[in-house]
Amino acid sequence: xxxxxxGYWTFFAARKQKHLGWFIFGSVLPDLVYYVMFIYxxxxxxxxxxxxxxxxxxSLFGLVHDLFEHPVVFVLRQAGHSIFVWAIVFVIVIxxxxxxxxxxxxxxxxxxxxxxxxxxTHVEDAVPMFYPVSSYTFRSKVSYWDDEHYARVxxxxxxxxxxxxxxxxxxxxxxxxxxxxxxx
Length: 184
Ligand SMILES: [Zn+2]
Hints:
The chain is mainly α and 184 residues long. It contains 7 helices and no strands. The protein has helices at residues 3-14, 20-44, 56-69, 71-80, 83-97, 103-121, 151-177.
């Protein structure tokens, strides 16, 4: 699932919880490496200077391709999307702080939500779910981006659900503002 949608759905699910910002931060964390490294590679290659570039789109595609091949991105992508790595961090935090909802556990729940949503929305680009101890890779039937695997249907359903959930939030807000008038 794309990073923005991860953030949105986590906001929706955890909106009544404490430490909402940490839930959302955890839910985008596994993908942050792409953005940081994209900017890094773009600067390293002087990719902003499109004026001298005969084919800037080609350079951009090359950049994105190399981004996912980059060893730092490769390792952090697999680690960030691994239930095994998540579980190790979870156990450390639980032993250290206990089960109560803290900034740390909120971040971990957001992160777990990201892993689960990605398990359900990646097919050919799925990553091993227990990296680095096992190469077993669960492939969903649905990809959020690949038209070969129902991306269009997924996008329609996801967008519809986002719009409906926004409508729901909007109606709730109106109701809170105008509570039923008390009979005198
Ligand atoms: Zn992801």
